[in-house]
Amino acid sequence: MPAASILIAMLVSWIVSFLTIGQLIKIGHKYRLLDMPGRHKRHKRPVPIVGGLALFAAVWITVLVSSRLFPDFALEPAGSILYIFLGALIIVAVGLADDLCPLSAWIKLAAQVSVGLLLYLAGLRVELLTTPFGSIEIGAASAVITVLWVVGLSNAVNLIDGLDGLAAGVSLIAALTMLAIGHLHGVGWVLVFIYALIGFLSVFLLYNRYPARIFLGDSGSMQIGYYFAVFSLIVPLKSFTASALYVPLLVLGVPILEALSSLTRRLIKGRSVMKADRRHLFHLLALAGFSRRQVVLVFYALGVVFGLFALAMYFWNRILVLAFLVVFMVVILTLFFILVAGLSHRRRNGGISTEKAAGHGRRQV
Questions:
Q1: Is 365 inside any structural domain?
Q2: Domain limits at 35?
Q3: Phi and psi (nearest 5°) for 324?
Q4: pLDDT tens digits, one per residue of 191-205
Q5: What would the pLDDT profile of 125-143 be if each residue is shown by its tens digit?
């Protein structure tokens, strides 16, 4: 991307974000578009839960301005941009509806599946499964895997949106990593989306850090995950060589780690994977004695580590990098289950209350 287009994309996103976030905070209070305090919530006062609307405005106004000022940008994605926009619109609408009047998890899943199919019809699809030793054509299974990919990433960020500044900060680290990788491989116009997302998140964190004045809500957290899915599907996989799909998986290592731990924990206990609980990693760190700020910093640090693993895939032997990654994941998950076992023992002996855990987060999936 030319330097002028980069600068304009960032400026537009910053300006739109500053203008919309401030106004949405006022609108949220005026029209009661709020996440209300409650027994299982940490915040003590109503907080607007419409951050996803500001994200939508920042991204798509940036895309619109870029398409008007840079004709080459307008021509390159012309065949798929409408589908991407419609997918984002569905995510925002369903997420906002769930924020204001909780929907069934199955309704949200159906919406995410429809968005995955929409991208598939637009030609944005997973056509290769990659391994350290090469790529495998998946043929007729492409539609299923594309939908699973979109659904998985759309939910990934949502799972860690439980503490002020947590999801936005981890997503910013992930977006910066994707930006670096995108520039290394000259991926072209898709970087406009990344710059728009970075611009929004850098501004949003000013309002979302503790004590938060506005929340992302499902409309924001699912939308961020959706854009990461779009990034990975837009970029021609061959330009990313055999490790194409590793990039978003590693960049989003923190929310994916959270998703894996939640899925494993619920399956072991025989609970529904669709049912919300209060045993996410950040809840458990809080129970272990970490302050709110320390929990957020731990997740930021993990985000940086996963980002470095993603970058390392392009500079060192992939098999060696994956070996280190596997060791790192095993250590983290082992520590997690040790922590779960220890806290369960303390709770059985009356040394800890479930309310304390619930007090460190907001409604989760």
A1: no
A2: 3-358
A3: -65, -40
A4: 888 899 999 999 999
A5: 877 666 555 566 777 788 9
